[in-house]
Write a structure and sequence with these properties.
Length: about 240
């Protein structure tokens, strides 16, 4: 991959800083300022479930994994389709990306962490959403899918693409953007530890995130990264 120009590097650097600052700002506001109140609000069943999912999903999840890339896309007038959301190579992209989940699935199966399959089951509001009345359940589930499914997966794609364009690798299966995203995932989800179990979990998470982003790079298609967060992450 050829080196990009100095001007393009500056632009990419600004984009990544916008994404990083947005994520940190939301994290500080959510955890540091209003963490306990938002947590209490999320579990307060006296409040409308649709309102709670919308607030938690948009303010917290989308704020962390979506707002930054949305701001950058608006500033640069970039369409999301420019980042691999196309039909070309969609089948191999999805299948190969799902294959990257196998080590993590085996680890979860052996450690007894696998439960009945249901998309977004591990999101704390999903159980209540599924038992809520129509149309609140449908709308709340769509919000959940957008925030915890589409944007969580696509966020990694945009970040990876920009880092890798700024710091291209001459090796086919080594990618700086994919590596940074894998480490970021471990830190954000707290999958850090020194016990054998924690180390195995870290390795399987790296394989999953790094692998799906290498698939995106090789196929030119990003839908596999999104599909993982619909059918695997938080689903088993």
């Amino acid at each position: 991959m050829s080196e990009c120009s100095k001007e393009r590097k500056k632009q990419l650097s600004v984009d990544l800083w916008i994404i990083a600052i947005t994520m940190v700002a939301v994290l500080v506001l959510v955890v540091g300022v209003s963490g306990s109140r938002l947590n209490n609000f999320a579990y307060d069943q006296t409040k409308n479930i649709l309102l709670r999912v919308a607030v938690i999903g948009i303010c917290c999840q989308y704020g962390l994994a979506g707002l930054g890339i949305t701001i950058v896309s608006l500033i640069r007038k970039e369409k999301f389709t420019q980042f691999g959301l196309t039909k070309k190579n969609i089948v191999p992209a999805v299948l190969l990306s799902l294959a990257c989940c196998i080590p993590d699935f085996i680890y979860c199966l052996i450690s007894g962490q696998v439960h009945a399959w249901c998309p977004f089951w591990d999101v704390n509001t999903t159980r209540e959403v599924l038992t809520s009345a129509f149309p609140y359940n449908v709308i709340a589930y769509i919000i959940t899918a957008i925030c915890w499914g589409f944007f969580e997966g696509f966020n990694y794609v945009v970040i990876r693409d920009k880092i890798s364009e700024m710091h291209p690798s001459k090796y086919r299966f080594w990618d700086w953007g994919a590596f940074v995203c894998a480490i970021m995932c471990i830190l954000v989800h707290g999958a850090v530890g020194v016990s054998p179990e924690a180390l195995i979990e870290m390795v399987t998470t790296i394989i999953l995130i790094y692998g799906m982003l290498i698939v995106r790079k090789e196929t030119g298609n990003a839908w596999g990264c999104v599909v993982i967060f619909f059918v695997y992450w938080n689903a088993l």
